Structure formats: C-alpha cells, structure tokens
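User: My instructor asked us to take a sequence, write out its structure as tokens, and then describe one feature of it. I'm not sure where to start. Here is the sequence I was given:
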Amino acid sequence: MAGARLGALWHVVPWVTALVVYYTAGGYLSLGTNVLIMILLTLSLDLVLGHAGIVTLGHAAYFGFGAYAAGNFAVHVHNGSLAGLLFAGALTGVFGLLTGALILHTEGVTLMMLTLAIASLVAEFANHAHFLTGGDDGLQGIRMAPLLGLFRFDLYGHTAYLYSLGVLCAWFVATWRIVRSPFGRSLDGIRQSPRRMRAIGTPVWRRLVAVYGLSAAMAGSAGALSAQTTRYASLSALSILVSGTAVVTLALGGTRRLYGAFLGATVYGVVQSFAAEIDPFRWMLVVGLMLMGVVLFAEKGLMSLVDLGRNALVGAFRRAARR
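Assistant: Let's start with the prediction itself. The structure tokens for your sequence are:
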C-alpha cells in the first residue's frame, strides 16, 4: 500500500511543483517557460533515442522548423496561438515523416550523421530564405492574439507559462500512453534487437518512421511555443547547440523514464541561468562539471538518485507499518 501511494504521489509532484513555481517565481517566470519548452524538446528526443534507439543529433531541425512554421502562420494567416501550434506541430510531423523515411534505412553512425546533415541543410535553407525566415535578422512582427480570446501574453510571462505547461501536459499524457501501448512495447523490442523483431513479423521500418514523425511533431510544438511566447524566431533555433542541449538534458535526467526529461531540463536550465549570471564567460565549465559528475556517480541519470530516495521512503513506511 505504501508503495502504491508513493507511486500515485510521484505522478502529482512535477505538476504541483510547476504550479508552485508559477505563484512563487516572480521575475523568473520567463526562465520557467524556457524550461518547460526544453522539457518538451527533451521528451521528444527521449521518445526516439531512449525508447526506439534512434540516435540523432539533428532534433534542432524540427524545433526550428516548428518555430518558423508557427511564426509565419501568426504573421501571414492567423495569430491565434492554438491554431498556430496545431499547424506547426502537424507540418513538422509531416516533415519528420518524410525525412525519417529517407534516413531510417540506415543505422548507427551513418544514421547519426544523416540527422546532423538534415539539420545543417535546414539551417542553411533558413539562412537564405529571407522571405520566410528573415535570414540573420530573424522572423519579426509576430503578434499573438489573447489565448482563447481571454488571456493576453503579458510582459511578465504569466499566460506564456501556463500555456506552455498545458501543452507539455497534453504531450506528456500522449507520450505516456504511447510508450505503454503495444506500439510502445514493440519499439522497446526494436531498440533491443531489430533482427528479432523482423523475424516475428514486426514492420520495423514503418514503426520507426512513425515514432520519428511523432517525435518531430513534439519537437515542432516546442519550437512553436518558443516562437509564440517570445514573438521571435531566429536561426539560433536551428543550431547544433539546441540539439546538443537536448542530448545533455536527457543524459542528465535519464533515458526511457519520461520524468527524466523534467528533471534533466530543469536542473540544466536553472544551473545554466544562475551560472551565467555569476560568470557569463565560464558558465559552460559549471555545466560540464555537473554532467561529468552525473555520468561518473549516477550512470543512469538523476532519476536513479530519485529512485534511491523513493525506495528508501517505501522501506521506511513498510518498517513503520510492521511495528
């Protein structure tokens, strides 16, 4: 009983914490919004890398694609946030399906380099397509209508934070259901042994393409949130730094855990922000040392430390119940 109660409580803690941050963060709400967006991007990477075993260094392509799609939709079509989010997510998902169909015939280092090549090609296209992206100046003039016609995107970031939290919650529930469905179980089998899965009749390539497209849609939604909440989209959204940050946050939190994305992105975002305030030129050293410490002492990420603490609490409850 104690374990079941703690398990139920575990699912509530991240969301309650996010709401507490909303009421207590004050001037740091914009940082909180950025963290929520990074959690969504990391979650999309965990779906393909952690659960399906697709090694990618090019997820920035879909993040930036979604940002520019949402920005152009707001500028040229309609400035409704939900409509722009759905458009960007769907369009990026289609782009992910097309690129995934091209590259997922390969594996290993070849696949990794192809994902990096796609990200580079998209970034180069965006750099020259001034009519769509604004080039080096970025896509400007994005004006968002009040969310649901009621809540304005104010300078303090209240609406942006709750909007990002709601989108993250929706995607998290969808991802949770997917990884625990027969489709998700088959992805786990493909990650462990594609040959065995083919031997029992599983359409390996089609399922990998499907999950890759879904992950691209999630990353595109994260990019759309970034463009909508900052009212700006730039080439930095397509940089290798975005892909690298997602990999780092996933490694920090732990793969195949879903909540690892929450923990890794939050710790990275907070440490990066405060380290940059203290020393703008050496903050990467702090992040590097933190990552080295996690790799050396918590091989499976920060979630392994959470597991130790949770197991200790369950044991303490059980011992108390026997007395």
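For the description part of your assignment, you could build on this observation: Residues 204-230 form the longest helix (27 residues). Try explaining in your own words what that tells you about the chain.
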